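Protein Entry — a single chain follows
Fields — amino acid sequence, structure tokens
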Amino acid sequence: MKTKIFFLLAILSLFSVVTASADNVISEADSAYNAKEYSKAIQLYKALEEEHGTSVSLLYNLGNAYYQEGDYGNAMICYKRAHRLDPSNKEVNANLNYLSGRVEDANKAEQKGKRFKTGQDELSFFQSIHKSVAEDTSSNVWAVWAAAAFVLFVVCVAIYIFTRIVLLRKIGFFGGMILFAVSMLFLIFSFMGSRVFHSENEGVLMAFKTILLTEPGKDADLEKGQVLTKGTVVQILSEEVDAEGNVTWYKIRLNSDYIGWVSASDLQRI
């Protein structure tokens, strides 16, 4: 018994030390950020992420530090990953929308008189619904609602089985049917959100300027390709790999005006 108590106390003591250490690093990183020492803040936030794992607040702070350094690519990666973890976070969404506007303005400046769209294509009605369900709402939220609806379904079943009052039996029967259907629907929404969360068909351009090529290869005509700037979020359509199975080229799409191939070194998956 004493051995078990000692072991438990040792674990609690170790947990306290680890928590205190993490808090100290966070405090040091925040102080560096407030002192406009953004490179130091980035190093500390990344060290914290590698040692203790990621979180919405950590990605948000790291994204802010990257933005202040002028690194729109890594800032966008951080904001997009934070958004996937918590789509309802207002601070993350505000900074993500602001940075997206800055990147779009930079892409417009690269057109040099051309009038191409520099944002994502307009969503159809069903695409908007899918975005609202799967991207703008966390899969965990849908899972909680599904569980709650199922619990109410069980209550309705109990009412139907154990009561003799006709009105209550009707409420239990029809209410149970509705709640079961709603529970299954929320569960489907949860799976949809989880699929989007784990998807790898979206990436961010990391090079200062990336030229979209008509075909993969170093010999492609660079003068004819469209230019996109660092931080642009694109859809990954396909990829090419070398003999060892390493991805060397991605075919990407921003919208109907910007489709082409980029080197794998110029893009990072979200």
In short: The chain has three domains: 2-109, 132-197, 202-269.
